[in-house]
Amino acid sequence: MKNVYLCIVLLAVAGCTTQHSLVTAHQQDRSSASTKPVQITGKVDQVLRNGILGKSVTSKVYIYFDGVLHIQGKLDRQGFGQLPGISYMDKRVSSSCQSRPDGPSMAELSCEVFIDSERATTLVMHTKKNRY
Questions:
Q1: Residue 114, in any domain of the structure
Q2: Considering its fold, how many domains does the chain have in total?
Q3: Does residue 112 belong to any structural domain of this protein?
Q4: Could you tell me the CA-to-CA distances from 124 to 8, 21, 33, 97 in Å, in that order?
Q5: Side-chain-side CA neighbours of residue 95 (13 Å)
Q6: Residue ranges making up the domain that contains 54
Q7: Residue 115 near residue 15 (C-beta atoms within 8 A)
Q8: One digit per residue, pLDDT tens: the chain, 132 residues?
Q9: Is residue 6 in a domain?
Q10: How far is CA 92 from CA 32, 83, 95, in A?
Q11: Which of 60, 71, 97, 127 is the most exposed place for a label (fewest CB within 10 A)?
């Protein structure tokens, strides 16, 4: 009987969690410091949880330079985050992300990508709101 209750609880928890993955289009580096064009792409993974206080979304951002992951990090509950990265061609990279409402249940996530403190591009992704 314990196994039946355990299975019901596990199914309820699994049913309350869903995951979404959204990808942006490729963007070219616009910085003057770049010696060759670099393809910068981004992806956001979202996990939706139903809790006692309502639904919430946990977002994790991944930013790739020429197909290699260089920046990753979690956003806060409001959809904002300063994301440090590993160096790209011996240059420091980072990203600053912010979210703004884009409809009743969607948000527009905008991540400015910096190479050596100079803005290289802005990636825009449409995501689910972090709070309902």
A1: yes
A2: 1
A3: yes
A4: 39, 14, 22, 9
A5: 34
A6: 19-128
A7: no
A8: 555 444 444 444 444 444 445 555 455 555 555 467 889 999 988 887 777 777 777 889 999 999 999 999 999 888 889 999 999 989 999 999 998 888 887 888 899 999 998 999 999 988 876 654
A9: no
A10: 15, 12, 11
A11: 60
